[in-house]
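User: Structure please.
Assistant: Input sequence and predicted structure:
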Amino acid sequence: MNYWLVKSEPFKFSWDTFVSKGGDMWDGVRNYAARNNLMAMKEGDLVFFYHSNEGLEIVGLAKVSKEHYPDPTTDDPRWAVVDLVPVKKLNQTVSLAQIKADPVLQEMAIVRQSRLSVSPVSPTEFDRVMDLANEI
């Protein structure tokens, strides 16, 4: 299993909206590195749901329910989507400030490549975030 982080601006698509829909396709990615990360996702992989721009925190845990397929929001065949479903809201959100201050998380992509909307998370980083969220 692999771990990932996806970002969404809550005023456009929040965790609560995601949960109320029971999941959704993750579309609109127009960055090649983020697209490559989407294409590397496998069914069952776990995904942190991060509120960007406002909140700046990991709020929930999702799961890949369908591996990549062509993005239906564009005619350009270079872009892909995956389907995600909610797993659970975290017991405690984990802020970007907490992530940046934690020595274990210094190499996390959200710190090093802050503009990347879909990024990998190492098993060590995943476990540490879950610990910070009071999930372990």
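The first strand starts at residue 3 and ends at 8.
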